Every structure is written in structure tokens, then in C-alpha cells.
Amino acid sequence: MATTIAGALGVVLAIVDIVLRGHISVRPALLILTGLVLVANGALRFASIRRSRRDSPRADESTRIPKLPLVQRITPMHVLVVLAVLEIAINRVAVPMLGPAEGDPPAWHTALDYAGLFLFYFTGVLVVLVIAVRVVTKLAARPNIRDTIAHGLAAIATLIAAAPLIVSVPATMSLVLELTFALAVVAVIASAFGKDSDLGIQFGLPVVAVPLLIHTGNVLGAHFLWPENTFDGPTAAIAHAGVIALCIGALVSPYCFAPRPFARSVTRPMPVVLAMGLAAAGAIAARAAYPAVAKAAAFAIGVEMSQAQADPRLALYLLGLATLAWTLTSCAIATSEARRQVGLGLACVLLGGYGFRWPHHYLLPLLGLMLVADAARRVREEELANTPISSATPPIHDAAWAVYIGSVAQGLRRVLTDVHTLTTRGEGGLVSSVLVGEADGLPVRTRIERVDGCVLALDVVLGREIDEQRSASLTLWAIPLRTHGANPPGPPATPLFKSGDVSFDERFKTRGSALALQRLFDGDLRERATTCLDGWLAYWEHDGMRYRVYPGKGAPLDHPMPLSDLALGRASGDGERLVTVIELLVALAKRGVKVAPSPATSFEDLPL
Fold first, then answer.
1. What residue spans of 225-268 are helical by DSSP H?
2. Count of domains observed in the chain
3. Is 391 part of any domain?
4. Predicted TM-score (pTM) of this structure
5. pLDDT band at 468 (very low <50, low <70, confident <90, very high)
6. Shortest CA distance to 406 belongs to which of 289, 574, 532, 209?
7. Burial of 399 (0-12, 13-18, 19+ CB in 10 A)
8. Could you read off the pLDDT of 221-259 as tens digits, one per residue?
């Protein structure tokens, strides 16, 4: 919808420009063509959505979500990257390098020139639309102050950079653009920092941004400090420093942006083969036709190299390019959507180049930084979710475990009625210890899973058991210490919000309904939850509640079960910690879960 409206608006503005000027020129003609393409794309997308809704099965017919066709999985970001690559290949490289030295160009070169010009305008308009949609979507979600400032400055920089696509602007606007661009870059980087953000990205983003800020400093210095000796002053030296900073950013990119765990990423053959192939191809091309390679590099990404003889930094450039190619390929084949978004962001920074002559030279790097900063908050949880969960706890002898389960059941009898225990054994050494009971008609089921004697997870269900893939009314994630690793993700819920209780907000990340949080937690219960709960807690309004914790995985090893002591044969009768947690969960469930008319629970009804 946004691209359709923007395309129609572009057509209208181009027509108004033609009417005011009294004649048609290349710029409004290309804007009209770009707008028509965007309108057609939006119409086709709308028709595809209507067809998919009409043909999709009802909820009671199938619970399996079909995989979308490839065409429907293509996003505007994918289209933008492809257009940017074509614009570099045709408009920046092929047109200037294949043109005749003198005389009129042939017809094929004229057609190629017009195609490159169209790609130039189309890429510029599309990157403006993508940034605009991201800014509007983010601001509508009422983000924190850092995100608000970052997206506000990005919107201002986008408007200033996009102006030359429509009208002629005075030369003084370039200084305004440079300053606004630098402020937006700094604000976007600052928005990426936080306790939940990936540590590597927090380190790598400033490294990537340094060359962009060096360029801005060079432009401002040339205007205010050394305007009379631009060519023999420090401008060239600072520009070379910016290129070296680019190489440094490329060289550190695997350590900051590659998929985690890093040891698994480096063993994949595809990124290594592509990186080595690219480095070999670059070396062979530079050996065979160095002047053409140097000229193409200057046209494509704005990196100036000596054309008279081989640049002494050529090996460094090839190494940086191959390293960055490895990082981009690794991100592209990652299982995490956020990590793939990191790769798209880095690709946008690369495609923007270091020439800074046209709008998308500024907007592509800015969009790339926004994508990476946004993904930094999600990538750690997604990669952890895609990693097979293994036990991080010591093995416990069956006899000691049986005594412990008995002590827990005895303690639960002061909270629950009709408490029963059951142990089941499955394949692969999986053992499940189940405790069931009732609290004033509310069914409570506690399951502790062990693999080869090692505790894997604690799962408590109060009320009706609901699939954890279903969106919850409220979900709380305990924020773990970095030494405990990341907390495995729980049921999805939106939006992210704060409770207003400082200690509670420092302990938990809350998503979903603020009213549901107020209904379940009073001041005393928030304090008890801050002290007792790890893992995640999900609540489906009136239906049920679920609590899960993985000891040693985003949670302490010995809470709420003394696993270290149990492994050593001690404290086998100390089930009080777990009983305290279940007692708190029962108190919460009584405030928000409705009791079913027939609350009786039997082992035959349990999904063992």
C-alpha cells in the first residue's frame, strides 16, 4: 500500500512539474515511469494477497501454515538490493567505461545509458520509500527516546537527500545534508546499544560508521578550514584515511556480524569458496588489466586508486573485499531472520559506496545501519532458538531424584489438593517427572524433563494447556545475567512495554497487554516474582498460564531446583524452592485464569 501511494504521488508531482515548466524533460519522464512501476507493483501485490486469502484453508481445516511461493517471499529490501547492484553495474560502471572516447555514441550505448538513468531514479525512489515505511512503522509503535530521535533524524536526512530527485537544490544544501546525515548515523548507532543487543554488533556498528563520519568531517573541513587549498591540503589524506577505515571495517566484519556460534560458521564451505573465488578473480583481473580495474573501482564504490601503477594497498583492498564477501554470504545463508537482515544492512552500506554524489549514496548506508541496529535486538534470541537445546546441568542419580520429587510433592500438598506424581521414560534417555494437583478447582501440572539424568527444563501449566506457539495475552521474559547465556524465547506477544516498577522492569522484559499485567500482579506479587522467577511466563486471558525455565540456559543452575547438591547426593529432600515458585504461580493464576466447570484431572488426560 505504501509503495502504491508513493508511486501515485510521484506521478502527480512529475505531471505538476511538466505543467509548470511547459515542456517534458528526462527527469519527470523517469519519475513518471518509476511511479507507474511502483503502482503496478502495489496492484499486483494487493491482488496476490486477496487471492491467497480466498484460497487459504480455514483454521478448522488445517493447522499447518503453508510455505509461501518464492515470489511472495520477496520483500522491497530484496528488490532494492538487486536494483542497487544493477545500478552500479550499468549506470556507474558500464556507461562511463564503454562510451566512445570521441564522436556520437552508438544506439546500444544510448539505450544502456537510459536504462542506467532509470535504475538511478528507481533505486533512489525505492530507498526513500523503504526508509519512510520503516520510520512510520517504528514511530507508530511508540519506541524509546533513543529510537525516536534516531528515526526522526533519519527521516529528516532522507527528505533532504531525496530533494534532488524532484527539484534542483542550491549548493548550500549539501552541507545541510552532510551534517544531518552524520547526526542520523550517530543516533542510529546509539539506538543499537542495550543489554538485550548483540555484543558483536554493538562493537561492529561504530567501526562501520567511522568511514561515513570521516567523509562528513572531510567535507565540513574543506568548506570551513581549508577552502583555498582543497586539492593540495589534507582533503586527499583524510579521504585515504576513510578508505583505510573501510578496509578495517571489512576485515573485522566476520568477528562482529557473522552468525553465531562463530565456530560453526567458519566451517561452512560455501562462504569460504565464494570469498576465495572473489579474491582470486580480483587478483587475476588486476594483474591482466589494472587500469581498467582501478577505474571501475572509482566509478563503482568511489575508492580512488593510483592508475599509473599498481596501488600499494591493492592487497589490502582485495583481502577486505574477500572478508566482507565471506561475512555477507554467511549472513545470507543463516537460519536466523535477524542475522539475514544484518547481511542485508551490510550489503546496503557496501552498495552505497564511498563516492557520496547522489541521494542513494547517502540513503543506502543510512538504511543499512538502521537494519543492522534493528536486528541487534533480536538476533541473539533467534539464534538461540535455532540452536538445539542441550542440558547444561550435571547428571542426578535416579534414587536421589526420586527422593527429591517426593519432597516436592509433600510440600505441594499445602498448596494443592489431590497431588499425584508420575514418572515416564521415553526414547533417547528422556525421563519426565510429572506432578498434578488442583488449587480450588484450578488444575496445575508440573513437568520436569531429564535427559540421561540431567535436568533439561521445568514446565508448569495452570488451567488449560495451550500451545506455546500461539500468541499470548502477556509474556514475561526474565533478563538473565550474561554469564547465564540467553533466555530461550517464549510465546509471542506484542507490544513491548514497561510496567513502571523499576525493579520489575530491570528483571523482566514484558510484552502484550498492560491491563493483563495489572490484573495478575499487585505490588507484593511483583516483588515475589522479581525474587523467584526465571525463564519465561506466558498468560492467555482467562484460559491458562504457562511457566518454563531451562536451568543453566538463561537461568541459574540451582534455582528453583538445587541441581548441584542433588548431583552430589546432597539436599535430596529440599524441595522448598520449587514449591515456593509453584505457590507464586498459583497465586497469579487465581487472579486471571477461569476455573473450568469440570476441573477433574487424571493421568489419562495428560499429554505424556
1. 235-257, 262-265
2. 3
3. no
4. 0.64
5. confident
6. 574
7. exposed
8. 888 877 655 555 677 888 889 899 999 999 999 999 999
